[in-house]
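anyone seen this seq b4? input:
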Amino acid sequence: MQWTHKGSALLLAGALLALGGPLAATTAAGAPGVSGARAVPRTAPAAPAAPADPSEGPDPLDFAVVVDQSASLADEDLARETEAAALLVQGEISEQSRAAVIGFGSSEKRGQSPVRDLCQLTVADAAGRERLSDCVQELGRRDTARMGPGTDFPAAVRQAVTRLTQAGTGTGANTGTGTGGAKKPGPPKVVFLLTDGKLDVADSPEYGTDRESRQSNGAKRLVEELARARAAGVQIWPLGFGGELDRASLTAMAEGGYRGACSEIPGSTPRMRVVDTSAEIDKALQETFAAARCARIAHGTVGKPPADLTVTIPPIATDGSLTVAKHDPKVQVTYFDPAGRKVPVRGEFDGSSFEVSGQNGPVEALRVKNPLPGSWRVHIEAPPGHGDREVAVRAIWQGRLRSAVVLDPASPRAGERVKVEVQMQTRRGVVITDPRQLADLSVAADLSGEGFAPVTFRLADDGKAPDAKAGDVRFTGTLTVPAGATGALELVTRMEAPGITSDRRPLHAVVAKGAPLVTAALTVDGDTVHPGAIVRGTLDVTNNDSAPHTLRLGLADQTPGAELTVAPATVTAPPNAGTRIPFTVTVGKNTPYGTLGGQVTVVDTADDDRTLRGALLDVRVVEPPTWWELWWKAVVGGSVLVLLAGTFVGIRLLFRRRRRDLTGVTLELCQEGRSLDSLTVRRGQSPGGVFAFTVDEPYGAPATLRRVPGGGSSAHVLRRTGAGELLLRPRGGAQVPVRTGEPAGLGDHELLVRGGRPAPTGGRGTPWFRPPRRTGGGSGGRSGGGGAGDTGAGSGRLTGTGSDGSPDASAYDGNF
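predicted toks r here
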């Protein structure tokens, strides 16, 4: 290839490509580049969760797992029912919930009972879940001496309702509103009934004297028991499997019990469900359980030991249980959080609480309070002979959100229109900012107080007035305070979505009497800051009183672990004047990363600490930039300049070295106009632009030229300078310039130098990129052996003759 301007450009491009790799890696690793976003966001360290009172945990549930043990079930089906029941009692997320385990069949002779009380109502705390695990195992063992082979649904429903409604079972919570609008005391009461068949009491004497009347009477009795369940507020959730099902009977059981629900979300009202085989029971029953207690279920992966299984818990979850259907108690389970850390089987770790149960049973569960969101890894191992069955992992979770509520104005007058704004965060302090986490969320508020009936209104995040921006996860609504309001007000917000409940903490206010003397407007700048930074805000106050008022700035509903301070803490509103007062919120150095929750408030200390205004924080705390993130542009820019300068110098040196190269130059020895010999300089024979040679004069023969490797005092030396000038130093003589094609004295002979680069004609030398010149054909020389005009056969060098017929080697063969 010829050395041209394109060759120089290619070298420069190669140098930039070499730099491109680090530049690309820099952008991907987090340099601001084009967009300024990190490719892989760093997880902010979570602040330890503040101790929460029991009311902040998931709502408790009283439930009975009622399992069909009739003779129509194969042993394999009964085993699957047992494991499914274990998934419920082990996977319950509230340690205040209670569970009962009941098996049922029929009573056909003396000494038999249609039901077996395996576990009466047991609190599902650490010890209780172990007790329930043992009780569930009894479901897999039929006692044909004490229980008949039939299917007595009325007795099963009656036993479950009795256990769930016994005196002392209530905890004071409300189940919700029934069809009649009445509140049911205590936690929700739910029956999960597993069966493979239909009502079969034909051989049960208590229902009559013959088979036909017994079946008819059994059906009537079932209707009565369902009415009793409905009156007692007990839901019935039937789950059937197999080909002998009576779907109509299962539907009647679901619709005949209590029809209240844990929320207004569709799907939380009792309904029957049917699966084709018992192999699907565990998955279906957990999904049914999640629907009944307004939780969500995340299905994880499946595998045989040894294996790593995974399941994902979303950021919005505040309580959950990881259930592992391992079938064999010999299977050992180890749990790892999304950060890859092994978590304890019991105790506190990084703001979360852990509790494992069922390790000695076919189902094991890890209950987690304040779980770290992300992909959890569950490692399973088994001794030889115990790893032949697939293990499945799932997570049941619920998000119990805290609400930060701003009422504007904070103390409204009767008949005044007010705006309500709500922001949500988890118990762990994570402010919800992604609207996708709140899909299908419904937000409402109830205003109650003295002098008027409660008022309910909806809040939205749709960007329509009064909501400022759609999708910012700030729900806004307006209402008019009833004209009859005379004193205290209480505002409670309700959030409902699949798997989400709210704390329903009340916001208290007081109806203002007449026009307020002091009014205020409060704004806080939205910003992204680092720990230790400040956020600015503005307080605008109008004081219509004749006396000054002292106002106090404060913070409410802060993110746990946040170190926020407001300055100044107090300000003075001068009388009969409007004042604008700047303030700052300082973010402490130990504040956790993430979006800060809470609000800035201002109260009038001269008016019984009446709240004048509140403003939600819109601040995101991020990790301080590293040295590289601050200076990467300067470093990269300097590196580019250095590399370009180095490339430029390298190219200059390369060209200088190439200009000094004598490759292709032909030396011709002449005497009295007659050519005696010629010698062409080959590649590598002129290091540093120097070629040493000598003239041999054998006796009786013409003189010849011979290269002298390494030179020496007896050699002639031809040298080319960096500027391209040829210099000849005869042996023992002074150095003289030589021009191509012009003879130079060499003792008794003359030396003609041909080919190569021509000597400069003036100035500082020839340009860098002088295009090579090709001439026409000519006669070959001694060193060639090729055709006419070729200095060497097979060398790839193009030579020719000049206008005077002399050999010309100025056209290069691509060898540098």
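Residues 228 and 339 are 50 Å apart (CA to CA). The first helix runs from residue 5 to 29. kinda curious what u guys think
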